[in-house]
Amino acid sequence: xxxxxxxxxxxxxxxxxxAAWAAFAELYRETGGMPDSEATxxxxxxxxxxxxxxxxxxxxxxxxEAP
Length: 67
Known about the structure:
By secondary structure, the chain is mainly alpha-helical. The chain has one domain (13-65). Helix content is 69%, strand content 0%. The chain has two helices and no strands. The chain has helices at 15-31, 37-65. The radius of gyration is 17 Å and the shape is elongated. The termini are far apart. The model has no long low-confidence stretch (mean pLDDT 85).
């Protein structure tokens, strides 16, 4: 039996890699199998852009509230 190397999951801390993993998992759950790579890429970018927009909204609200 082949031993898999220990994996460092710190790559998930990167916002885009986290979005890519979320996209893959969502599509896997929806399709019941390996998702299409193009569909995964499109979903990952959508998730990433939504997260960035949310963070930018939070920064805008916070900066408007600051004296």
